[in-house]
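Quick one: structure for this chain?
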Amino acid sequence: MTNKTHEQDVEFIRALAELLNENDLTELQVKRDYGEDDSLNVRVSRQQPAPAPVQYAAPAASAVMPAPGPVAEPAAAAPATAEDPAQNPNAVTSPMVGTVYLQPEPGAPSFVSVGDKVAEGQTLLIVEAMKTMNQIPSPRAGTVKRILIEDKAPVEFGAPLMIIE
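Got it. Here's what it folds into:
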């Protein structure tokens, strides 16, 4: 690799790092092919603190109030799932980075609401990634217990979206 190519690669990596920061991304991966046996693979990432509970949308008060009474003792037995939805085995996580939409189009009713029964494969929400609307199906049948993300909120790969039990 020539020094000129090396300098161009360094500038390219700096530009990726700036793109990462400007768009508030946690990871970016690019492969640049120069020829048949010559390429550059770059992965730029940064750590972010764990998402604060403030980021998660709380269900309506009427849906939450009846649940704490009977759940109070089991919640004490499993504080990790009560405090961190990502650790809940019933959490549906985002398969990609993008923007979440809870309705099929503006003004339409939500795909699902807290308390709804869902079937396996039923659309729960949409994650828009690179101008493509990706329907996120339910991985199992059950009841929507919590919706953890707000409409039009950005989401990272693996972030918890809903709890379905």
